[in-house]
Design goal:
The protein has 391 residues and is α/β, with parallel strands linked by helices. It has 14 helices and 10 strands. The chain has 3 domains: 2-140 and 264-333, Periplasmic binding protein-like II (D-Maltodextrin-Binding Protein, domain 2, 3-Layer(aba) Sandwich); 142-262 and 338-355, Periplasmic binding protein-like II (D-Maltodextrin-Binding Protein, domain 2), CATH 3.40.190; 364-391. The strands form 3 sheets. Strands 4, 7, 8, 9 and 10 form a 5-stranded mixed beta sheet that branches. Strands 2-1-3 form a 3-stranded parallel beta sheet.
Length: 391
Amino acid sequence: MKKWISLALCLLALLPVLSASAGAEELDTSVTLNVYNWGEYISNGTEGSLDVNAEFTRRTGIQVNYTTFDSNESLYSKLAGGGADYDIIIPSDYMISKLLNEGMLAELDFDNIPNFKYIDEKFRDPDYDPGCAHSAPYTWGVVGLFYNTDYIDEEITSWEALWDPDYAGKILMFDNPRDAFAIAQMRLGQSLNTTDPADWRAAADLLKEQKPMVQAYVMDQIFDKMEAGEAWIAPYYSGDAALLVENNDSIQFAIPEEGTNYFVDAICIPATSTHKREAEAYINFLLDPEIAGANMDYVGYSTPESAAKEYLEEDVVNDPLRYPDEETLSRTEVFVNLPDDVSKLVDTLWAEVKMGGPGESALLVAIILGFLALYVGIVIYKRRKRKREMA
């Protein structure tokens, strides 16, 4: 299927009409677009797949400098630090809302993105960006649990499994606060967007209770750890379910009964971009149903374009992991941006979880200061001894 799609796309590309964008003659082909995306999140030409960035360059002459990040928070840090020069970024829903509130996203000119018409209606007016004025949906999915049946005999149906002492030392957790807290919040029956400080503290306490059983807080490292059997159970995104399940028959994926997070990742242009017209051409290219289909065939995530499904295998389109039924979706909740005071509290609580809580943090600081004092004492002693010997 992947090779067929690639061949078809190459043949279509020989046509005189460029599908990368309307008015492609207006593009500055001398520029290089800096694209910042999640790892393993675009078709790159391996295994007979389409090389999306290379195809864009071939059609437009515009080069692509492609780099990756591993969390929304690291993306935000890069942008907020002021040293980044990106033309395209692909953050998640709540981070889009945050960037938008801080004036860090450019408004899109949809005259330059005619392929936006292929985005399904239900994705066109999200809470995180009303009217999609600053973003174009790229993928969507839900969070669930991967587990290895070589080591776990029972069927996993609840988030409680991540607190099961039988799996201590073999549990992985998200290395970002919103996803990690969401799991605890689902267990506690909270809204994922609560603004009550007491709710967040209760969720933090539950994560602190779990911490001694966690092998590591990870993101993309989940693939190697799960496939090697180094870890037995881990939460992650549904789009990666197919990749892990296809590579290892022992790995299963479940959407817990308590409910889960429903997410959308979308394509945005930072307000600081100096190549906005070319960036909009890139967005338009990604939204072409054939390109989107080939891209999602490799990436494995769900497409927000029904037209793109025509270029996917029927078993993929009918896969409940990629396209959950309405009953499952009714138990999901989308992240929204939190007020500044709540965000700061979450960051503080997350640091406590990772460090082991305020008490353990204080102990660690005391130990470090103790070693520092001992080191200074030794240095002073040696200097005095040297002076005496020289005298």
